[in-house]
What does this fold into?
Amino acid sequence: MNFKVAVIAGDGIGPEITREAQKVLDRVSEKFGHTFTYTDVLMGGASIDVHAVPLTEEAIAAARASDAVLMGSIGGNTSTSPWYKLPPNLRPEAGLLALRKALNLFANLRPAYLYEELKAACPLRDEIIGDGFDMMIMRELTGGLYFGERRTVEENGVLKAIDTLTYDENEIRRIAVRGFDIAMKRRKKVTSVDKANVLDSSRLWRKVVEEVARDYPEVTYEHMLVDNCAMQLVKDPKQFDVILTENMFGDILSDEASMVTGSIGMLSSASLNDTKFGLYEPSHGSAPDIAGQDIANPIATILSAAMMLRFSFDLDQEADAVEAAVKQVLKDGYRTVDIMSEGKTLVGTSRMGDLIVERI
Ligand code: IPM
Ligand code: MG
It folds into this structure.
């Protein structure tokens, strides 16, 4: 089959890691007889440098015209890059938020999985790790604090900043339904995370999640306060299957969950709307400090491409092949520097990509 993929290489390590993911897709096309046609799209700093804005209408149109978007990472060093002298709505991150909103990508899936081979990289003690863990963070991605009204005003000579956290019940319901659907394909447990002891938006969240849960009698669900969840993630990460949460909490908890797996360089993500379309990107950022050195770990982006095969293209067998190749490369002892441990073979970004390609 023929698929159109928009590629947003982005900034920092973005171009290096998307290049490796494309190598992997090309190997998949060769082995399984598909065609992937790529269109390069500018976003973030790369777009600012050319168009003076982090996302153009043409870029949105190009993404829309594709079957899925493969993305690297965007943004630069926030204290030294000239991009951060621009007003907030013109900075690199604003492009990503605008694209999420324009394409209605409300469901963000961030799997956090501890590879047997990478146990040594996990900062938790052995008795906490046990047999490892495997969770899916379902983060609401187009509402809440990120998209509420915001402004900074001066009142009687005092600066005041206002951010608004808004959710309506429909926004909560659609992500909750996604969360429960995914739980049905996993270990059938949902932990809905909120701050219902303080926030109205969380109390509505809880009410709607309870309604949705009634349609999924096989799924065990619980509510957990976000501060407790942050603690439980390091105390006993095995307890989690699907963590369902709003935008800001999901941003924070997914970074924490990723660190618990040993390296943020391993974690993929998918951002989906109501159709088969999705945007696939690693959970990590653009790491400007190591850009261009051929040392970044491309695995998160390669696994994001595997999610693209699975969720947007329904190519499960192909996605399995990519995931198996990643496991095999780890088993064979190859490591990028972020996951390196004694006795293993250190390789760079592009060699890691080649080694995975060889195993598909
Ligand atoms: C993420 C990132 C983004 C977010 C930034 C780059 C705006 O941290 O995808 O988690 O906060 O959503
Ligand atoms: Mg984040």
